[in-house]
Amino acid sequence: MQTARLWAGVIALAVGAASASAFAKPIFLTPPDYDPKLLLPAPPLDGSPAAKAELSELESIEATRSNAEFAKALHDDETENATIFEATIGDGFVFAKFPATAKLMSEVRNDEKEAASAAKNLFLRNRPWIVEPALKTCARSDPPQSSYPSGHATMGYAMAVVLGALVPEKAQAIMARANEYAENRLVCSMHYRRDIVAGEVLGTAVGVALLHNTAFKADFDAAEQELRAAHLTQ
């Protein structure tokens, strides 16, 4: 039920973005495009049954995760840029060789980060290790009240939506990588399940809004032409 409400918000935002695309400004998105009050329900309170269930899931994941799984999650924790998708797009693909595409992804990163920050500052959910200090996490340098939504998940899905539109032949694999990237936040004990679901919703909303933004489309078209010239998409 809760996930359905989240996705309903995404659809509503996408429709609104499409109708408002004629009013695109030099900057891509503005706060009304990603208002977290309209997209996301509040997370459960610490100590509530729902929050306890989420903490129990993290403890279960920690008890069963392998060293290899933790190492992969730690690498993802330390990588907050589009390079997480390089292997998915193709053998030997690196964004550094495709400046228009790299520029586009940096723009996605800029706008989705603003959206995630706005949501984090609204909800101020405690990180899991604040509630349970015994958790073995990938890092503890993030602000203590910045758990909801997951910024990594927001980034992963915003980029995946745009990259999937750029390279539709790889769209499903790209979305699968975004899902793995988000799930690794649980492996790291950095976020709760609802945090990554909220990041999925917010990131998807940002990606859809960007794809309907006229100014963004000019840079999208340049990246698409660049990838077509390299025979990475048709």
Describe this structure in words.
The termini are far apart. Helix 1 (2-20) runs parallel beside helix 10 (193-211), helix 6 runs antiparallel to helix 8 (151-166) and helix 8 (151-166) packs antiparallel against helix 9. This protein has eleven helices and no strands. It has a single domain (2-18, 44-229), classed as Up-down Bundle (Vanadium-containing Chloroperoxidase, domain 1), CATH 1.20.144. It has 234 residues and is mostly helical. The model is unreliable at 1-26 (pLDDT under 50).
Tally of discrete structural domains: 1
User: Level of helix content?
Assistant: 55-70%
CATH topology-level fold name: Vanadium-containing Chloroperoxidase, domain 1
Q: Could you report the average pLDDT, rounded to the nearest whole number?
A: 90
Fraction of residues in β-strands: under 5%
CATH domain class name: Mainly Alpha
- Which CATH architecture is right? Up-down Bundle
Write the element-wise H/E pattern from the N-terminal end onward. Answer: HHHHHHHHHHH
Fold topology:
Blueprint: H1 2-20, H2 36-39, H3 49-64, H4 67-78, H5 86-89, H6 99-123, H7 128-131, H8 151-166, H9 171-187, H10 193-211, H11 214-229
Helix pairs in contact: 1-10, 4-9, 6-8, 6-10, 6-11, 8-9, 8-10, 9-10
